[in-house]
Write a structure and sequence with these properties.
Elements lengths: L2 E7 L2 E5 L11 H16 L3 E4 L6 H10 L8 E5 L8 H6 L16 H4 L4 E5 L6 H13 L1 E2 L8 E2 L3 E6 L3 H6 L5 H7 L2 E4 L9 H17 L5 E2 L1 H9 L5 H15 L5 E2 L16 H6 L4 H15 L4 H8 L3 H10 L4
Helix pairs in contact: 1-2, 8-10, 12-13, 13-14
The protein binds adenosine-5'-diphosphate and magnesium ion.
Adenosine-5'-diphosphate binds next to helix 2 and helix 10.
Amino acid sequence: MAQNQTDLSRGTAVMTGIEPVKFITENPEMIQVLKLVKQTARYGSSLMIRGESGTGKDLLAKFYHNHSSRRSGSFIQVDCASIPPDLIESELFGHEKGAFTGAYSQRIGRFEAANSGTLFLDHVEELPVQVQSKLSRVLQENRFERLGGNEIITVDLQVVSSTRNNLDFLIREGLFREDLYFRLSVVPVALPPLRVRKGDIPLLVKHFLEAFTRKHSRPAPRFSVQALEILCSYPWPGNVRELENFMERVIISYQDGKEILSEELPLHFDNVTEMSLDAFADNHLTLQEIEKIYIRRVLYKVKGNKTKAAQILGINRKTLLEKRRRYDLN
Ligand SMILES: Nc1ncnc2c1ncn2[C@@H]1O[C@H](COP(=O)(O)OP(=O)(O)O)[C@@H](O)[C@H]1O
Ligand SMILES: [Mg+2]
């Protein structure tokens, strides 16, 4: 089994050995991405992954590592967003004792640690421009010196990077070096957000249900058809991570044998209603879908009192009953 160490230093994680990576998807676009990443890994070419938070960038970087010929080497992750800018250069390239105030001993950098393996530059858009030019040079030459040292260190590794933004804008603004961009993104891929691959939601729900019932030795909950429908139409702004966390909460708080009803889902799932109209449009909601969500919400608020609900909605009781039947809101 793989060992994970995350305590090496801030923003750095090391994975040695091969940890199985399970990508759950039936989405054609995702499947294409996975194919391309496998292919890229086989040649050890630089891969750049773009995607919103929670779409699976870390997972994909490990997937790349596991499908590469350097899979028995280390997988070293550097989170460029969480390391203070003035420390990142020594974090990447290491330093000799006395290289700067506070450098009490020699320390090898992440480049050396990733030798014969994979270096994963997470949130690479956060890298300070001064460090970018050095990084670009090192990627080209595969050699460098530790800070304060003059020994030339040669490495043989492959690089994956990830970004939440489209870097074009940063390049135009002079905040990201174009030469570095081209070195890092020999093969660029984009992970689509969950809201544009809703077909994956039921698969992921099932996957995490199974995983967490096993992990916590809990019975498997059942969702009502309506509750599942709501989960499938919710736009999941936090993507797979949000869904994963939600499923863990469900398993922990689940009452044995009881079906989970739509009314019991946390309010924010319906908060499609609290979201801006822009979000409705972005998520391609039809008027009927919005009507259904709103009627359900109102019925819930008035605790099922149809006369009150009809009043709030400005329709008569008979129309409400019809709509309630049509939308299966019993
Ligand atoms: N397609 C998927 N199948 C199974 N688990 C996934 C999938 N995509 C993401 N995950 C899980 O969701 C969580 C968030 O993914 P992560 O790779 O950390 O996203 P990102 O780095 O883009 O923020 C992780 O626990 C990851 O294992
Ligand atoms: Mg990540």
